[in-house]
Amino acid sequence: MLLRTIYIRSNFSGHTLILLISIFSTHYAMAEQDKYTIDNRSTGDTSASSGNTWRLVTDDVMGGVSSGTLALDNQTDPAGQQHACLHMQGDVKLDNNGGFVQIALNLPDEVIRQAPAYRGISFDVLGNGEDYNLHLRTDGLWFPWQSYRATFNATADWQTMQIPFNEFKAYKTFSKLDTSELSRIGFVAIGREFTADLCITNIALYR
Asked: What is the mean pLDDT of residues 38-46?
């Protein structure tokens, strides 16, 4: 879009030039207003750009034997662009009624206040071809195994996912998802034995 605009600028009058720049700038501003950033990986550590800190959680909290790591990484796409990302790796095991590896973020208050005005959650993801879950928790859930869940496939190429709030399924609760009570998000390798390898960046609320 930007290169095409520059080409047109060289062939029209100054009056049209101003109009083209205005159109491009307005379009860009509208695109930025369509999202609210949770974490764009600009911090250089495990803290999210909107606040609070990502942490690794595995099923060892309930006696399981799954293992995992959370690291900071940079991955390059086919166009040569680098993506700073959170890199979750691990082995999911079902022994002792376990079965998950997760990176989770307690959402900052401002994100929670903004959430009802948005349609869902978007993020850029790179993986190993496996299915993963995005889990949401709210203040209305009492037990640690309760959540609202959506599944996505993480391919070996970078892709942008957009998951509407109305596609999250209630798990172990009859309560409907109330986005005004959001408290935590988590990217989870869960439910079967497999090797997890997942990179996440540019997490945001989207309209």
From this structure: 97
